[in-house]
Structure formats: C-alpha cells, structure tokens
Amino acid sequence: MRRSHPVLITIFLLAAACGACREPLESPQRPREIKVPEYLENTIGERAIISGGDAVLVQGLGLVTGLAGTGSTAHPPGIRNRMLKIITQHEVPNPETVLADPNTAVVFISGYIPPGSRPGEPFDLVLTAAPGTQTTSLEGGTLLGSELYRVEMTRTGSAPGKALALGEGELFVSPFVVEDAGRPASEGAPQARGGLRLIDSAPAPEPAPETPGAEEPTRRTAPTAAWILGGGRCRYTRNFFLNLLEPSERTAQQIIRHINARFPGAARGNIDPGIIDLTVPAGYAHDKLRFLEVVNAIYLIDSPDQRERRIRELVAKLRAGRDPTGIMAAMEAFGKPTIPLVEPLLRDPDAGVRFCAAEVLCRLDQPIAIQTLEAFVRDDASPHQERAVLALGELSGASAAGVIHRGFSAKSPRVRIASYLTLRRVAPTLLDAMDIPGRLELGVVKAGDDPFIFVSRQIKPRIVIFGDAAIDPPLLVTTPRLLVSAIQGDDRVAMASKEFGWQNVIRPRLALVDIIVTMAGWPRIDMDRPKLNALDLSYSDVVGFLDQASRQGALKAPIVYEPVAFVGPETDLTAPLEDATGDIVIPEK
C-alpha cells in the first residue's frame, strides 16, 4: 500500500468536511489557512484545498439471472414494485414472469467510484440478496445492466440521487468456506493446506506462501453475497479541483501558470475565480493521487536562486531521513531542475537515500536510475525490493522492462506479482498472457523458483501461474456446477459440468493452463467432430476448483490471494450479511 502524504490527508479531510465529495468548496466554507511543513511553505498546498480526491458511494437495485433454482419467487411489496418499474423501463417482456422465476434474484448493489475516474473506468461492486426474499445462493449468476445512483443524505436518512454509473457482469461468489468460522486458530481453526494464505498489505516482508502451517482466515462465506470485479462503469468524468483559500483572479492565474509550466494543460480557470479545474496527465492515470500530491507541492516562487535553494534544502532533508514520502513529492514537483542535484544521491552510502533518489529520478523519466534500482530488485533482503519494481514502471516505454523481469526470480511472492502487474501495464507483449473473453486473464511466468498461483480479487479477474504448477492425482472436485476427477497414474483429468450434462466429459492434460482454459473457455463444437471442448464456467468456478485441489494436496503449488481492499458500506440501502460474513466485509460506520 502506497503511503500518503500527511498534509494531503489533512487536505482531503478538510475537503470532505466541507462537502467536497460532490462539488468544489464554496467560498464561505474555506478555512483561512493551512499549516504545512517548512519545506512546503510557498507552495500550492499553502494556498488551496484539493477537492474531488475521495471516492463516491453509489448504490442500486438489480436483477441477477442464470441461477440454478437458488433465486426467489417472492419479494416484499416495496422491493417488488421498484424492481417491476426497473424491468419495465428496460423494456423486458413479461416482468411479472421474470420476477417469479426461481433462477433470478433481486440484489442490492454498492460500489465506490474512484477519484478522478473517466467515463467507462471500472470499479468493483458488492452485491447482497435483497432481504425478505427466498434467495439462498448467487453462485453462477449474472447481473443485468443496473443503474447506480449517488447516495444523498437527507433529513430523514439516505436517498438515491443522480445516476452516476452502470453495473453489470458475472458474479464472483467466494468459494472459500471455513467450517469453524469465528474460532481462533489457537482453538483449532482449520489450517491452510499447501501453504494457502492471503497476502498481507503491510510493507514488512512476509513469509513465502509455501511456508508450512500458514493460517487461512477464519471466516465464513455467505452464498447470498457476491462481488463483480470491475463490474461498475463510471458514466461521467470526476474532476479534481483546487479551492483557493483567498479567492482572487490574480492568485488563480499564478497557480494555473505554475501548474501548467510543470504539467502542460493540466490546470484551467473556472467560472468561479476561487476554483481551478485540474486534469490528470496521461502519465499519472495509474496513480492519480500521486499527481495531487505533486500539485500540492508545486513551489510558487519564480526566482531561480530561491528555487535552487529550496531543492538543496529538500536534498538535505532527504539525507537526514525526514519525511521521505513528502520530500520525494516536493522534488518531483520541481521537475527537471531537480535532476542535477538528485543524481549524486545515487552514490550515497545510505541505501534508503539511494533508493529514494532513484525513485524520484524514475518519476522524472531518467533511465540513469535503472542500475541503482536493479541492485534493489536483485536483493531479496532489501525492504525496497517491491517498491523498486514499481518505481521502474514509472519510466516511459519499456526501457526498464528487462530489470523488472528480474523480479520474477525474487523469493517474495509480492515482488513477483508486482513485476507481473507492472509489466502488464508498461510492456504487455513481453508476458505470456491470454484473455479468455468475458471471463479472466490467464498469465504464465516460467521464471523463478517456488511456484505459486496468484488469484486476483479486485478490478479484473486474473490468475497468474508462477513456476511449474500442475495437478498431481488423485483428485476429486465436486461443486453444484462442476465435477473434476483423476486417479493416480492418470495423465489427464476428466471434467464435466451440469449445464452440458455429466455425460459430456472433457479430458484436458494435467497442465494447469489447459485445465483453466477448458473450464472458462467458450464452448465450440466442430460440425465434423461434434465434441465439446470447453465448459463455459465462471471465474468463481475456476477459483473454487483451485481451492479444492489445493486442499486435497493435488495442486503442487500454494495459492496467493489478492487482499480485498474494497468493502461495501452499511446503509439502509444495503442488505447486511448478518452472522455470515466472509471475503466481503460490511463494516460499521
């Protein structure tokens, strides 16, 4: 998790308190001053508040189809009437019949539109079966296109506002069920098999995923709760704004001039002279909040001597180890003039100083930092190893792709995963990856020892196989939708799904890639040889298979699951999970 600058956090809290989650601040609400560290004096952060840097909650009511009789035929009157109106608006024929079908379910949908989102940008959704219905499971379902509305707070509670997004897609129902949910591991909670564990988001190094005895979270999954990875789509641009503490046309023009000198075209005036509109440059699209940190740290003094003096002060503070995150943002804000004064730090005796200097230079697109960061990427004992990979991803093009690729040989699974995701963004052609349309991304990384399988649980369904991972029979996996079996000595597995009938068995090789492609691929039947070649199963089915195979000891590689950062809010529009909480967590507000 990337650290946030303390001043920026203060700014966001002030913005939220003043209602900045929806609109720019109005003049009467602006505080008179903001206290900033000494190195941020005479910067934009001292003159203005950034708004729009928060996530916006959207919710809605939707219809899930494709269930195996686990939906509901009866609904409370209020929910039923709202749903009939929605179905009618979508011109679906026979809405009464649709609602009475046990293969459908009415669900509540929640999601957070990220700050700075553009039309079509995805975000995750949480779904829960509507209360008062008979729905027992959302497994195998698909959410039809549903409007998602901003939640407005009124005197009587919350109410839907403007429709800001659309939600749809296949549901991911967590397949992980722990029978002794809620019981501490010390009291006999089930232990993970094959080293199954969750990645910890803390920056401290963690044991490799294959460590014996690693504990699985003691949580129970609710089958009436699900989420859709990247299932929400933003409809409108969510802009960032600068709200001047002391509005004036002169101050606004000064700030716009300094921002555009650093980021051409990123700032423009507003009808309100106290507000400046911000546009995130393309180079910061993957890290919009860092762009705000840098804007916040832009120096507003034109004197070259004073600017150089400030840069030298920043260099001294970085060497002293004071607030490196904020110092690096301030250095980045100066742009190219920083480079000659930062380059000598690449030879500093302190490893932390060398790393920070190299990261700043990468942010300024200076390949001279590659050699320094390569040493960190190769060093499994370095606390900067993962961040070194991410920093190299800031260089333009694929200039550092070869060094990033070296991260696949790291011992830490976090570093290897970071290397894959970074290359996927900056040099995707260098990866062995395929997209199974509408289902998932399947990646294969052959480099490195200690094989494991990475399973994503945010934004994009993704499975990445690191190293040599295969199925070693015997194996028997059974779910309501799938049967997979192999006896000892087999060189193939037998697979069948309920949809195509248990008599339509497919026999892929034991290679995990072949098995996953067979499970998730679209079925094709050759007219000359009418034989099924894929099962059209969901991401949930694939992950559930991997989980069971790991528990049985047939999957000779541990599974590393992406942590779930998104949580659904608990409001009167969301159905709580009651006593069955799982990978989806609805916290108290």
What is the C-alpha radius of gyration, as a whole number of Å?
26 Å
Averaging pLDDT over every residue, what do you get? Answer: 81
**Main sheet makeup:** 6 strands, antiparallel, barrel
Globular, elongated, flat, extended or rod-shaped: what is the shape? flat
Estimate the strand proportion.
15-25%
Distance between the termini: 22 Å
Can you walk me through this structure?
The chain is α+β, with helices and mostly antiparallel strands. Among the domains are: 6-52 and 241-299, no CATH class; 56-176 and 221-234, no CATH class; 335-430, Leucine-rich Repeat Variant (Alpha Horseshoe), CATH 1.25.10.10. It contains 15 helices and 19 strands. Strands 2-3-4-8-6-5 form a 6-stranded antiparallel beta barrel. Strand 16 and strand 17 (482-486) form a beta hairpin. Helix 6 (304-319) runs antiparallel to helix 7. Mean pLDDT is 81; it is low at 1-28, 177-220 and 567-589.
Topology (SSEs and partners):
Elements: H1 6-17, E1 48-51, E2 56-65, H2 77-89, H3 95-99, E3 105-113, E4 122-129, E5 142-154, E6 157-170, E7 197-198, E8 225-234, E9 240-244, H4 249-262, E10 267-269, E11 275-278, H5 288-296, H6 304-319, H7 324-334, H8 339-342, H9 351-363, H10 370-378, H11 385-392, H12 401-406, H13 413-426, E12 432-436, E13 440-445, E14 452-455, E15 462-466, E16 475-479, E17 482-486, E18 494-497, H14 512-520, H15 539-551, E19 559-561
Parallel strand pairs: 7-19, 13-15, 14-19
Antiparallel strand pairs: 1-9, 2-3, 2-5, 3-4, 4-8, 5-6, 6-8, 9-11, 10-11, 12-13, 14-15, 16-17, 17-18
Helix pairs in contact: 5-7, 6-7, 7-9, 9-10, 10-11, 11-13
